[in-house]
Known about the structure:
Layout: H1 9-16, H2 19-22, H3 26-40, H4 42-51, H5 57-67, E1 71-73, H6 76-80, E2 88-92, H7 99-109, E3 115-119, H8 121-124, E4 133-135, H9 145-156, E5 160-163, E6 171-173, E7 176-178, H10 185-193, E8 197-203, H11 208-216, H12 218-223, H13 225-230, E9 236-241, H14 258-273, H15 292-300, E10 303-307, E11 313-318, H16 324-339, E12 358-364, E13 369-378, H17 379-382, E14 397-399, E15 410-418, H18 427-441, E16 447-454, H19 460-474, E17 481-483, H20 491-500, H21 506-518, H22 526-532, E18 540-548, E19 554-562, H23 568-575
Parallel strand pairs: 1-9, 2-5, 2-8, 3-4, 3-5, 15-16
Antiparallel strand pairs: 6-7, 8-9, 10-11, 11-12, 12-13, 13-15, 14-17, 16-19, 18-19
Helix pairs in contact: 5-7, 15-16, 18-23, 19-21
Amino acid sequence: MQEKKIVDLEKALNDKYPKLFTKYPKFISNLLIGLLKKLFYEDKLNDFILKNKDAKNKEIIDRFLKSINFTYKIDNISLQNIPKSGRVIFISNHPLGGLDALSLMHLINGVRKDVKILANEFLMKLDPISDMLIPIDNISNQSSREAIKSVDEHLKNEGAIIIFPAGEVSRAKVFGIKDLNWKGGFLKFAKKAQAPIVPIFVNARNSSLFYAISAIYKPLAGLLLGHEVMNKKNKSITIKIGEMIPYKNLILPEIKSPDNTLKLIQRHLYNIGKNRKTIFKTQRCLVDKVDINEVYDEVLKGLNLGKTKDGKEIYLCKTSNKSALLTEIGRLRELTFRRVGEGTGKECDVDEFDFYYEHLVLFDTELKEIVGAYRIGVTNEINPTLDSKKLYTQTLFSFKNEAKFLLKDSIELGRSFVQPKFWGTRALDYLWYGIGAYIKKFPETKYMFGPVSISANYPKTARDMMIYFYKKHFTSKEEIVVSKNRYFISQAEKEELDLLFCGQNYEEDFKILKESLANFDLSVPTLYKQYSELCDEGGVEFLDFGIDTDFEDCADGFILVQTEKIKEAKRKRYIGDLE
Length: 579
């Protein structure tokens, strides 16, 4: 029994161009089909697939590329720009129409197995790689609902998608080989999933015959893609991958139309290929996850502050610049902060302060995971008035002479996080138990202070409301700390906010704040709510607010807490509830 053809050009032509078989005499259509079959290398492709029917997906792509001795070159920097996990959309120019797609699938699948590609007609004929394909004709309004649903679902499940925005192979132009007009479907996917974009430039070209036929009759050129695949024997292409672009960085106020955004993204991608300056603000991929056994070994060397009722352990740890624990904390910090529109944009959120600060670590011994952490600077040990060591807050705020009391018997708190896997649990509350255990262990601690951030994802109006509210109810009697990059609210905006926050007390104004933020589908950040309700009156103050340009332009409030004024109920809860 004859094996079924995997690649059947005659059937494909009959499906797409039925008039070819009815409009012209049969001998003409047979002659044309015979010629196209040879140009398409139909027999060779089917022979290869049948001989390798035990292989699928990356394995069969690997065998095929080796069978024609086709290779791609990529440098280490480009490799490091492939995110190893998390939702992401890879976009690329499309110079070859076949081998570029196979090469990208082979490359990215070697880093992460969850990658899928929106498949053109050529790829859809290749059943052995069907698991890696999402069938779609092009990225336009005519795309099937099933394909759109598949992409959305894959991104929702933290998968990776490869898209060629042109939707078809590049053509020869006056200034070289370039994509035709891009379609904006990938931006819609990115917006819905809030997925970052990773731009890829493929340096390659098809044969002169292909471009000549394309200029005469474009549909016929598409049927030659099989020929273009097979004539690349012993050839090589170069792939360059740029740093990821968070979706929010694609939305620039000066860009007034989606078409202009598309053109700028396309220029950004081609600039990567030309080693020119790119256009959009980018982020590095996160550093690889550290061996958790090494991390736990370091955690166990710390001071055990207690255990929660469900078995999570809290440790106070010191680290060094070669610490596995610190690297994993930095990776998880950056991962977490990026999820809320913050972060440094670096592969790992670690700075020079981490090496001489202590780290309060919440560890799940059953799952072998860091749940979250707080960074603690002990002023009695750092003492910035006597040596070169500084407090992190001193990079953001200037301390007046009247604030020198903070440099003794105080702790600076900051860089707190609970990794996304544990959102919706009691993890943040457990970190507060850890702070309570610290105060119990070191009762000389009189003050806690540090920056508390409001994400730049909050519109300015929402941030104005929050900052006005916390200044109104928690302002300091004296100006003892001043932001180096002060948050500005205009006089006109202040007058509007005066009218908005007309409550007689904190509770009434807080209700107004919550209702106003709800209009933006936002809520009061958890730390702001927890800190402000921690102490009796006068125990919590916000000394000033500023913008942190090194942390995605978030707004930082300098908070000061007097530990002796912690409410009795909170004191009992956080200082006396650990085993």
